[in-house]
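Appendix B, Record 12. Input sequence as logged:
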Amino acid sequence: MTFFDVVTLLGGLGLFLYGMYVMGDGLERLAGSRLERILQKLTSNLFKATLLGVVITGIIQSSSATTVIVVGFVNSGIMSFGQALGVVMGANIGTTVTGQIIRLSDISPDAGFFLQLLKPSTLAPIAAIVGASLNMFCKESKKRNLGQILLGFGVLFTGMFMMEGAMEPLHDSRWFRDFIVTLENPVLGVLVGAMFTGIIQSSSASIGILQALTTTGHITWGAAVPIVLGANIGTCVTAILASIGASRAARRVAVSHLYFNVLGSFICIALVYGYVGIFGAPFWGDTVNMGDVAMFHTVFNVGGTLIFLPFYKVLVRLAELTVPEKAGDVHPELLPTALDPRLYANPASAIAQARAAVRKMAALSALIVKDAKSILLTNDQEAARLANQREENLDKLEVSVSNYLVGVTGFDLDERESREATMLLSSVGEFERIGDYAINIVQRAGEVYDKGITFSDTAKRELDVLDNAVAEVLEICAAAFAGSDLALAAKVEPLEETIDEICERLRELHIERLKTGQCKIESGIVFVEVLADYERISDHCSNIAGKLIGGGEKSPDAHALLREMHSGRAAAYNELMAYYHEKYKLSENSQ
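Logged structural output:
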């Protein structure tokens, strides 16, 4: 095998992996948000979740990709660990589809015309031509995504053919025959299969390469079996890497995937080698073809799934022992929120359910705001990860609650119910935007860390004052919303105006520090951006309070409504302004 053969082999592997990526990416784009909705709806029990894992992985042809998607969904609270486990087990069956397609290369040249069309050597160029045409000449996104899928299919098998061609010199290679003999040692064979798959992070690619190697005529059953088992273990690397820094439940998904494949491989080794040792197997030294490899891969994964389905709680327990709970790990606000359309028939109950979901949004936004300044100054990655999870959940809640409330309004509502539904609909966006501005502050921590930006002690004290004021206005706003308390809502505007004045004063002081060289341009830019984020958070609190006081009536600017109500500067309003001015007075060092 020459240098040029090695280059061709690696180039073919690159095309194989890239084709798989392109095809999977096109399928995900074509599915869009439907993929997430399908996963949520069809994982109500373990059997359905397993079937779903089979179907999705069979379509995108990558158990690693499916497991990574599931880890992400568990990490963001869309799915529970129990739901994810079924999908992961099914993914191991679905990933065998690629090998079954590759085995079609074994179709005899003497087969009929239609069977010849099914051969990858015929189908791949046709798919590539059609896919390229759709990509180049169609403007509609669905057709372009379909073209991407077909093009990926063509690229994948072009890479496969390149690998097969590069391996032809191995037909007569003595060292290769000797190497294959060593792989008949089950421990060595499993290790080689696991390490190679772990490096390229695709069991489909590993099995495809093994199928290509069968064309050399040197791969025996004794070598193929442990390599296939090792490939199933090595594919767990992708999910484990994806779970680094994720939630505890997401890490459990990755660990359970590893246990599932490792235990399944050990059971298979014990059964197969026990049988061979006791009863003997004349075929064990026979060479295998592409179809043999594909069939064993499928039988092993189907058998492993059938064995573990009744005992899935063992995997759950092992994952819990490996990744135990710790104080502070459980974050109830990240758990999925149920909004039952069956309650539409009883609008009062449906609206109450929606109100509870919006209260959860208020709590989520308050938690992000609470941690934002600390993350900005410390670049605490664990806290930042949790803040981003909370913000992602906020985004999802905004969509689901809005859709749910729109569904409610299609039913016969009385005047009070209609007014409350309107108020909830308008408040959903306000709480979501509060989370957006808070996460802006969190994300600036990376810039502060990367650029080595530091804030002066004076700037930190100023941020403390502003952060405390914003935390209070959000706390008052959330409490007023939760209890429909108009007296509390009336306290929001004077504090919001106080926050506006604090922000304006801090900008002036910042400009003065710039002029005297006490502050650097880089830190100053971040400081001013953070002030703007805090100011917008308090504005949205004012909008929510205005909607409460306005009885849920739509107003283009609820903030302006509150200003108008207090334009006469009532005594109570003036007292609150004076109180907040004194409470959040900047220190002498900031004057």
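The chain is about 75% helix and 0% strand.
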